[in-house]
Predict the 3D structure of the following.
Amino acid sequence: MFDRRLRTRWWRLCLPSLALTTLLVGCAMPGKDSQKGARLVTNASYQELSAEENTPKKIRDPLSLKLRYARWMEELENFEEAQANYSIVLEERPEDVEAILGLARIDQVAGRFDAAGTGVRKALELRRDSATAMSALGQHYVARERLPEALPLLNKAMLTDPANKVYRFHLAVALAKSGDATAAYPHFVQSVGEPTAHYNLGMILKTQGRYAQAEEHLLQAVTKKPDFDAAKQALTLVRQQAQAMGTYASQPQPVDQIRRTGHSRPATPSSASPHRLPSRR
């Protein structure tokens, strides 16, 4: 449910899809994300990569081009081709952290969680200072609902590179899922903007069955961005679910009137998930 393509699979950055697609249905992030993880990858085309690598210096390292091609295939969700190329790189460079993380992301998407966890932990052992590996392992733990283990890693990755919106985004998701909406909200705002921050929080709250709070965040998203169709649809659905459970104290304002009146109840920063994940630096 991310505003963007993101299919929530957790590590696209490592990550830039995870997004990997629907970490939370209806969420949005800078990249991709999913209950299996979030994948964050560069959106460069193979033609661009080929041109960049077409220099005497780069040709001396053909594995560099193969690695970038593998990342591109991963972004296109051609996982078989991506896996084959990552594997070729590892045959020549067994300690190539980027290739190890690439295979781990593919394992995560395929549901091979144990193999994915092994790969990410290996990458972090090889590069203790790698924010990408820290964030990747944190996302893996989030996907396995091991939030106490995930939060320190995601926070450290963010502090290592505070300007990186992808790291900040995944930290926000973990904080929101852990129930600390107040802490999650500003990280979402900095990574995806206010309307999407409210949308993501609303979607996470919805999955937690906290319909009243979810409605407030979704209403804020629509108020701040009246043409936010995904938020409008989610708001309508949340209201229907809340009414069915008898949780409304008064009649909610119709969604189609929000644009004209700009009315909304104040929302408190709550749990989150992604709608439009920031692109990887």
